[in-house]
Amino acid sequence: MNRCWIYFLLTGLLIAFGCKKSALDDNSFLKPVRQYDMAIEGGINTRTTDQYIRLTKPALSPDSSPVPIRKAVVVVNDGRTDIAFKEVAATPGVYVGLTKSDPNYNKAYILTIKYNNKTYTAVDTLRQVVNIIDDFLPLSTRAMADKSVNGTIPKHTFGYLNPNKWYISYPDLPLWNPSKFDQSKYYSYTHILGSPNSLYPLNNLKRTFAVGQDDYISIYKISLSENYAKYLYSVFMETDWSGLFSSVPVNVEGNVSGNVLGYFSVSDVDYRRYKAKEL
């Protein structure tokens, strides 16, 4: 009889503990472990004279948005002179600077940000881009019976001699504009490193399009410094190439000093335009 009483008591305790609210339901579980002072996007490119850098305070919850950082002092030194950036009145948190068409190749560009009584710095090197060669374009096209052209752009291609970022535009996609930070979702990448091993499966990320034979396709090839290429590869190891057996995601460190998320980049840009039937 006593054994029966003990059995029912243990069963009741298990049910009681099982009904206890899970710790996963606690709102504090969603809070990020690390809270950054700011996030940085953009940098310097050789195709346009207007240069754009965006500074934001990262969001701390899924239902909030990044907050623009206002009234920061932003300066880039290209090894010859200081380039002062001013905040764009119509777009809070976005800063614009004016450069001359005189790239300082293989030299360091130094970014300095002063905000909230703190100073942040970053350095990146301007690597000259190798001109676009037709045989090495990271896309494939196929002529169709109805005289249209179907194209496929993989997000990642491996085994290139140099790492690069690409922006490929067609009639349904606007031309590349460094002031439009939402265009980053259309970038594709060529990597000098090999593809991840089987523990980091590629998710077959690609973009497809259909255009007329005489429609123009604009291709921008954007150089990456060695450190920027390594940074992007590390980011993709935590995002695009994560799998069931991947390690726990980590905070990928950028090149900005202090508690800052992101990477200040300096890039050379080559541009070509083709008719679809030429590809």
TrEMBL record:
Q: What is the lineage of its organism?
A: Bacteria, Pseudomonadati, Bacteroidota, Sphingobacteriia, Sphingobacteriales
Q: Could you name the domain of life of the organism this protein comes from?
A: Bacteria
Q: What is this protein called?
A: DUF4249 domain-containing protein
